[in-house]
User: Which sequence fits this backbone?
């Protein structure tokens, strides 16, 4: 793209974004902390889903100091339903570092901001360009899709090394006077117009500069190889209720998937083995398996993992002499205050 074309491309994109952008709450601020929160929430999550979470989160934690030292269980409860809980743990760790090391001021350069926990190249670039007006790349899936079509880049975007190509492309094209509108414009274009399938080319403000549009097949790009096959695990989830109407919950381990979240008793199904018997032996319980009530059967998909869940309400005739430290019986009111993963919330909503 020659110099004149580049200027025209910048102008067309920036003017379109300023006129047509969606009115989103994080676009009403230049506070780098608040933009950081929004960018972390938007990872792997739809904009419409994020908006109410973002508003509640900002009401609860309006400053970096208020988030830095929030209790983890409270924080997980605020994040409950957004999934990918390592995001909020990393966010808090990074924000705490900002408070303690940088006097609560988010660094305004890529070298320092990239050292913060959970801040990758995209998040760093988004904060720097949107909050600080720095000419820095912020390459996500939307940006790669738009530029693969505009510049006819056929590198496989599923490969990590390919992102470098697009980062260099953004730095070559970015409007240094309108970095926020330029970067957000690329993202917005990918979200609204230059979509994965059936791109709305006739509505695109930069179609005159788009190689794929002129060649007649924009949907052929970007090139993306297939995902890794998802592993499937079958579970019986036992919602165990004692004589006082309390429910048995178990806290997951401190690391790994859904760390520190609370769940009902989950027993992996095995051929020829009874989940009730396994639960009784494992937790020293006596269950009334003659009076079980089916609750819900469903699938829950993580990035590389699928849970197939059958859930049952079952009464506990006799509890253990001593529960493990990570297990307890809770009342309905207490359960409402505990952070639980989405599959457990689905079951809980059905029976509470």
Assistant:
């Amino acid at each position: 793209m020659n110099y004149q074309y580049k200027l025209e491309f910048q102008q067309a994109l920036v003017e379109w974004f300023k006129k047509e952008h969606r009115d989103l709450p994080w676009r009403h601020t230049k506070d780098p902390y608040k933009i950081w929160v929004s960018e972390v929430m938007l990872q792997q999550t739809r904009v419409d889903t994020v908006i109410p979470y973002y508003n509640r989160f900002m009401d609860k934690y309006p400053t970096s100091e208020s988030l830095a030292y929030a209790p983890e269980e409270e924080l997980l409860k605020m994040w409950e339903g957004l999934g990918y809980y390592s995001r909020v743990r990393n966010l808090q760790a990074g924000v705490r570092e900002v408070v303690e090391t940088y006097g609560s001021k988010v660094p305004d350069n890529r070298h320092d901001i990239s050292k913060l926990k959970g801040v990758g190249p995209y998040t760093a670039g988004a904060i720097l360009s949107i909050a600080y007006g720095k000419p820095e790349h912020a390459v996500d899936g939307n940006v790669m899709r738009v530029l693969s079509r505009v510049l006819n880049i056929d590198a496989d975007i599923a490969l990590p090394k390919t992102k470098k190509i697009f980062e260099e492309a953004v730095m070559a094209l970015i409007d240094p006077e309108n970095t926020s509108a330029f970067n957000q414009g690329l993202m917005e274009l990918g979200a609204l117009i230059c979509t994965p399938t059936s791109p709305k080319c006739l509505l695109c403000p930069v179609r005159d500069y788009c190689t794929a549009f002129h060649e007649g097949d924009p949907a052929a790009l970007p090139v993306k190889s297939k995902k890794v096959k998802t592993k499937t695990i079958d579970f019986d989830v036992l919602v165990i209720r004692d004589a006082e109407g309390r429910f048995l919950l178990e806290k997951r381990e401190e690391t790994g998937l859904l760390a520190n979240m609370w769940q009902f008793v989950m027993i992996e199904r095995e051929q020829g083995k009874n989940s009730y018997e396994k639960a009784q032996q494992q937790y020293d319980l006596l269950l009334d398996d003659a009076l079980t009530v089916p609750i819900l059967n469903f699938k829950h998909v993580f990035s590389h993992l699928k849970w197939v869940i059958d859930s049952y309400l079952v009464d506990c005739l006799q509890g253990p002499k001593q529960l493990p430290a990570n297990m307890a019986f809770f009342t309905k009111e207490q359960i409402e205050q505990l952070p639980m993963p989405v599959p457990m919330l689905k079951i809980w909503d059905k029976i509470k």
